[in-house]
Protein: Succinate dehydrogenase/fumarate reductase flavoprotein subunit
Organism: Mycolicibacterium fortuitum
Amino acid sequence: MPVVALSSAVVTATSHKSIPAGLTVAATEVDLLVVGSGTGLAAALAAHEQGLSVLVVEKSSYVGGSTARSGGALWLPASPVIEDCGGNDPVSRAHTYLESVVGNSAPPERSAAYLDNLPATVEMLRRTTPMKLFWAKEYSDYHPEAPGGSAAGRTCECRPLNTSILGEYLPDLRPGVMEVSIPMPTTGADYRWLNLMSRVPRKGLPTIIKRLAQGIGGLALGRRYAAGGQALAAGLFAGVIRAGSRSGSTPH
């Protein structure tokens, strides 16, 4: 059966030993080897859905890579996420934007492949992970003035996610950049209103109250909510755990 497994070991090309030292690495043959446990977990989930055997290797003792320490923003133009939130973003405009800002610095086929496969990728993540993606409207493109650019933006994020669903694997999730004593799962979209608190208190204050209630109230219910890259990494990790459990393999 297809296998999705996570390993805290990685084989080096020179020594053929595992990192950290002392772990035994057996000869393993798989259809897809994913090196790194950040957004590469999405590739693992996609391959698993296609019936391929997959192994994810990670050099550190944590799962999540740099994704877990990032803001967690995803650029998803002309995607079901934007459409479901009432946005209208034709894929032709996204093509125009990439052509204007990327130019000849990358093969145009790569940009086309990204845009053409993006809707299916979003639907795959919806099927295989507990993540709830939303459109961070008015988080503009970096160059909204460029041809095809959007002032409304195409940035999407994962809603705050209860990382307690990772169960015994929660300690394996890579910690975020800032660990706070009072939990307040704040998305990038929330930061806009927090930064404008003094000018638009009717938006900023409810945002603070909402996230504090979610964070502190969640703890009272045995839930640990996270946002940004932590939510994204935890959602992907949860999907891999679920896929591995169905196929008879779990992270180790």
